[in-house]
Amino acid sequence: MKVSRALPAIALGLIASAVFTTHSLSAQSGGAYTADQAKAGAAIFAAQCSVCHGQKLEGISGPQLAGPDFMGKWSGETADDLRDLIASQMPLTNPGSLKPAEVLQVLSYILQQNKYPAGDSALTAAKAKTVKIVKQG
Ligand code: HEC
Q1: Which of 52, 53, 57, 136 could form a disulfide with 66 if both were Cys (CB 3.0 to 4.6 A apart)?
Q2: What is residue 118's DSSP assignment?
Q3: Ramachandran sector of residue 119 (left: φ over 0; alpha: ψ -120 to 50; beta: rest)
Q4: What does the DSSP 8-state code read for residue 124?
């Protein structure tokens, strides 16, 4: 009796975890940040990053930050690894000067320029850990 009563609960648990997994996968492939975050990030990028990385992230004295080569270089890492680098090392002339929220905004902009779609919920450091960098065309 005990076992048969436990089974439906286990089945429900499995269904719940399947739903959860599907949900987090869809968060991963799209909707990692909001359009507002990317917009704010574009302004920060233009003011503080484009001088070295280029208006179109094409790279000048600093490396390019968009395109298949950049994504290929970071492939297998997560957006949080990028966040960490930006927070601790950029802008090169004044590392650590961006507020955490600004780092997430500029990261959102970089994701947007690398074809990651915007969504309804904001990018956070915790969420960035679930966003895999995959090489895209
Ligand atoms: C004074 C020039 C300069 C400025 C300003 C600057 N960077 Fe950089 N950035 C560099 C250089 C040079 C590197 C390469 C460093 C290295 O390889 O050690 C780099 C590397 C990076 C990387 C890693 C790129 C890769 O291929 O791995 C990211 C991401 C990045 N910068 C983001 C930013 C962001 C975001 C800003 C603005 C907040 C910014 N940078 C401002 C010069 C700059």
Answers
A1: 57
A2: B
A3: beta
A4: -
Q: Which residues line ligand 1 (CB under 6 A)?
A: 48-49, 51-53, 61-63, 65, 70, 73, 82, 85-86, 90-93, 98, 106
Q: How confident is the model at residue 26 (pLDDT cuts 50, 70, 90)?
A: very low
The pair phi, psi for residue 78, each rounded to 5°, is -115, 170
Residue with tokens 């003011």: 47
Q: How far apart (Å, rounded) are the C-alpha atoms in residues 66 and 30? A: 17
In sequence order, the 6+-apart residues with CB closer than 8 A to the CB of 136 are: 68, 71, 114, 115
User: What's the pTM value of the predicted model, to 2 decimals?
Assistant: 0.83
Ordered domains of the chain (ranges, CATH): 31-128 (1.10.760.10)
Residue nearest to atom 10 of ligand 1 (CA): 62
